[in-house]
Amino acid sequence: MNPLLVNRVGGLFDNLPWATWSVDPQKRNRDAAGNFVEERFHMGKRDAYNVLTGKDWKGRSLSIGNLAMRAKYMLEGEVAQGDESSKQMSDQTVLIKRILEVQRKELQQELSMYDYDLAIARQDDDYDAMDYIDVKRQACVERLESVESNIAEVSNTKEESVTKTFLGGILDQVASMTTDEGENAAPYRGAMGYAPMIDTEKDLEA
Known about the structure:
The chain has 206 residues and is mainly alpha-helical. It contains seven helices and no strands.
């Protein structure tokens, strides 16, 4: 399918309505006042190709790590504005607990996948695969135990003793796990098969 799309003159990609492509993350199809320029002056085709391949995508990832960092940026913004009331901290604590519960569910599903793959490898007497899967499974178990520990810590901490540093530390751990501790980094945003990229505060403002 890909050769039909991009490697032939007059192929499917050439027939896409790229002149009316609506995704314009760099706002290159607007004038200095922010108004849309006429279609005949659009940069469309190149931008459309970059968006189609994911290399120019400015969308926001909904990975657990990104949700955690959004919560952290929100928390830091409230503290910077002097709004560190017990009510605000309580709301943030509930949000963080929900994020941790979603991460726990994802890790439980990942663990089930490893158990399934391990059972197949044992049935096929594939010892190399068994060793590889077992290492991955053990790492998943350790991450799951860490998340369980964080959930228990958040649940058992009294509201009046909850601090920005305490909550921020847990959110940083969630983001680190999401990105495989910095390994398997994506070459560009939206690349398939890699750890998701974490948005910075500047990215969220763009």
